[in-house]
Amino acid sequence: MATVRDVAAYILHECNVMTTMKMQKLTFYSQAESLANRQIPLFTEDFRAWRNGPVCVELFNLHKGRFLIEPKDLPYREGSLSDEERTVIKRVCESLSKFSGNQLSDRTHSESPWKDARGELRPDEPCATVIEKSVIQQYYMKHPVVQLT
């Protein structure tokens, strides 16, 4: 199975330089798309309901202290993802890469997986609650990440 690093590296490979917030959100939505449409995760690492939306701590630790990240910072390793996994990620990138990290963060704030994991916390309060993969899968099966036209 791929790792969150593999998925993020492929996102950078496909989309080039971006903010770390945007990379986190595209990685989250790639995981959601895989869970909803393939019924399996792309990677085992979890996302937590941080203030600015879902964040994977393992990925955060790879870019901590940076605002922007580029492909050379997290090089894609050929063979680390299957054709099917790359297709899922490409579909998400093609659909969502036009949005900024802040826009994607706002979108996650309107969706129940993040909101429910945070419970009654104010938007500015810290939170480390895991957003369960089963919750992500159930929500995005009903509310697709990528709208097919």
Automatic annotation (TrEMBL):
It comes from the Bacteria. Residues 24-115 form the Antitoxin SocA-like Panacea domain. This is Antitoxin SocA-like Panacea domain-containing protein.
